[in-house]
Amino acid sequence: MRQMSAAFLILAIMTVLAACAAMTLRGLVHCALALAVAFAGIGTLYLSLGAQFLGLAQLLVYVGAIAVLIVFVILLTRGGDSDAGPLVPTRLPITGIVVATTILALLAWAVFHSSVIHFPASPVPTATVRELGTVLMAEYVLPLEVIGLMLTAALIGAVVVAMKEKQDPQ
Amino acid sequence: MLDGIAVDQVFVSLKHWVLGYSPAAIEPAVSILLTILPILLVFPVLFALTTVLERKGLGRIQNRYGPNRVGFFGILQPMADALKSLTKEDIVPASADRTVHFLAPLVLLAVAFLPYAVLPIGRNMIAANLDAGVLFFFAIGAISELSVFMAGWSSRNKYSLLGAMRAVAQMISYEVPLLLSSIAVIMAAGSLNTVDIVNKQAGFSGIFPHWYVLTPWGFAGFVLFMISATAETNRSPFDLPEGESEIIAGYYIEYSGFKFALFFLGEYLGMFAISGLGITLFLGGWGAPLSFLTWIPSWIWFFAKLLGLIIGFIWVRGTLPRLRMDQLMNFAWKFMLPMALVIVVSAGAWRFLPQGVTRWLISTLFLAVAYGLLARGVETRNKIAKRTYRFAE
Amino acid sequence: MTPPAGCLLVSCTLFAVGLAGALTRRNTILVLVGIELMLNAANLNFVAFWRYGHHGGASTGIIFGLFSIAIAAAEAAVGLALILAVYRHAKTTDLSLLTGRAQ
What we know:
Helices cover 66% and strands 1% of the residues of chain B. By secondary structure, chain B is mostly helical. Chains in contact: A-B, A-C.
């Protein structure tokens, strides 16, 4: 623990707590707001790891767009009035929790028995915006174009799916 | 000449002098404090001045005096306002969500102060020289939408929720032309770093500066940027979410006293920040407008331009009527978005054509044709139909 | 605990929390929230390996994370549009009431 900075520890604890809150709170809008905090926490974790562009892009896209989108859909489906249902319904959702705990244990075991934790300390790799731009246009230009097409398709698809169907005038 | 440079860098020299006297152990903390403190002091004072300026200015536009009771020509009005808002009772509705209701103005305030870190106020005067400064600005601006929603929803009031949803929809819609017009500048400057962008505009050809606003795509981009900035900060004519004559105060109806003042402060700070970004991207930051005026210190130019933009905001508020929600959204998606895309294309043409009359002509041609087609398209859609009455015959 | 292990542990915890939420909550929107948390945890993994791994300064981790954010945004948009469409038809977003409606 000594080698991890205090800032990282605080950010990590805040993010995990916000994620737990997002999955356990009763009010739907509270869950969405806790999710926004979790996203912001992850964005600041990226910033603390030295990934400046990615952290800011995470804040812009996830907190600024996706969290707002989730909140809008909660309001449009009248979720803000009633709560999300009892956390512990008549039948305890033990399967889900057991599965998640098993996977966590498995992943933690894998992390601690892998070679990654014995990596010697390396300096922060640089990823200036200029480098990222060059790499995107040189090596990754095909995925970039495909993502552009996919985002357009998703935009059109979302609008078409969520559009009100034309009602026949009675 | 040396005197000019000394005055220009007076704040930087002051900071280094104070740092020289501080012990080495706390030097980083003192350095950070000295960088942040001016921002925390100057912009709220500017906010106080702007409230008086706005009320007097609006009053004069509307052919009346503004506030003139408190102090000489009403200049001490912000003091009176501050005292009033501090001593008012803090009412929280009984059915309101107390935590979120309390947190909303705090989040707004935190998010309102952050963007000032990447604005270059003068030569060598920037709080955080980030590699992706412009992206930082927009990321923080996007977070402020959530605080608006928190304020509106937590009040458990139909009108405030309506105002909040309208405000968020408006902010999201106008973020797209805002970002696209900035992308044109980023493309021309080749960097997301605000200091680089200002430095690229620091040259002079003859007596005219290389500001991006003096190019065809830059002018169109600046106009689009300022319109989107007015919509982003919910200023008139885009202030339907806080329409004073319609849903009283929109998403902050249920706030009283100090929290209301915090919202007000946050809104104005957002206005200054986005004007600051407009100045950095289009108006050459701290650069002088004419080559023989460079002896005036850089920070004075920044604040002069900021004051000019604020006066522009106040003028527009006093002159134009409010837009309806559907008019607002149509304007954003059907006119501003295609126009912003054409501006990006025009900026690209400008960047790659050789200097001379050709690139002026081709840039302007792109913009003029697009504007003509789009404006004509928007106009002919909204034919005003003859008014019919369902029950009043 | 070394820094890379700490980072990876945080990402594993986020993944597990997202998975638990996606498997247990009854509201469709919260299932989507869990999925988004899982995607973010995987992104954090990428960034952790980019920061602490030995790869000669290549920015592959960042680029992958960037594309992953774009894909997650598109998926969230389409998923939420689907939830809206289902709500309009079935008037509910409760999964226990929606299961069994095959057509």
